[in-house]
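INFO  loader      accepted 1 record
INFO  loader      residues=422
INFO  predictor   begin
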Amino acid sequence: MAKGSQRRDSKHRVLRCGESIRANGKYQFKYHIGGKPHFVYSWRLEPTDPQLKGKKPDLSLREKEKLIGYDLDSQIDSTGKNMTVLELVERYLATKTGVKHNTRNNYNFAKNILAKEPFGGKKISQVKTSDAKLFLIKLQKEDGRGYSSVKTIRGVLRPAFQMAVDDDCLQKNPFGFELSGVVVNDSVTREAITKDQMKKFLKFIHDDNVYYKYYDAVYILFHTGIRISEFCGLTVKDVDLENKVINIDHQLQRTSEMEYVIASTKTNAGTRKLPITDDVAECFRRILEEREDYTIEKMVDGYTGFLFLDENGMPLVALHWEHRFNHMVKRYNNIYRIQLPNITPHVCRHTYCSNMAKAGMNPKTLQYLMGHRDISVTLNTYTHLGLEDAADELLRLEETRKELDGGESKEEAPSIREFKIS
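INFO  predictor   done
INFO  writer      dumping tokens
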């Protein structure tokens, strides 16, 4: 635009590109986002202009331009900032299709919490990192929610806000911090039990006149490490006693609506052919022999022939076994002075993994048997090994070296076991 043709206001101030004056004397600024025009207005051009009498105090046009200019320079769609936290979460969840039932339940749990919380009605543009942290702290300290619940809620909020960042609605994710530095992890860790505790527990079940009928199942869980949902999903066809292999390619679950469903394994690595030992095969053989021969069996998503059924002919699910383990441990502790810790089906899995690690099994082999997607999950088990385990491993390697060398070395070094272990 030529200098002489520049637009000016009544005070002869040059108007910038996009600025104009309406017929009523109000300043206007026009800008575009995604090809669509947007407008802001003010009765004042500069911040130094006096507020007009009878008009509501407001920012000047140039001040509003700076705010808009910041957004435009950052390529942020300012119109998306008016979305509430709950609306953002609902939009995010709408993109999550084909998820498993447990995951969908977690999503709905988080959404229902946000629907009741004032935080859910807050505009996403107003949520700072400190607001996000204080909200999670409130859930734990004031509302009394456990660490796992807070983790679940944050597990929805973090990717939802990241979606807003990716959609150019926000510049920064306020939930991009580590959870461990904000709320206290008060969840109970399900540790493995010792071999001695496992043997005592199994012997108790074997000899008990009430719980003896569960011995084979408990023994299998302790000596295969399969997930309880995988165990519940096993059918007669999945057990190959001739080749001593069990097929794991699905899991049985029951939804909060008491609906039985078949789901894929937890991870792709969870789908596997699991070799079993002779003693585990014998347990499966007894289970199959003692299993009732039903004329018509319940079918779940095309699967039938489940190993364990309730009095109504429906397959047992994880919750059934959780209750049974609780009752068995309680009965044991009522009888014996030396108490057992809490034992669950998942503790059986953890115990198997730890026992195999202590026995020196190759981590990649153990990863396959456990159905872990990431080797780091398997390797974390090895961090539970202590000084005694390290001494046993060194002793085993020392004996292997001597065998390869054809006998004792000329210069005898002190035995590993001669070192004092306190």
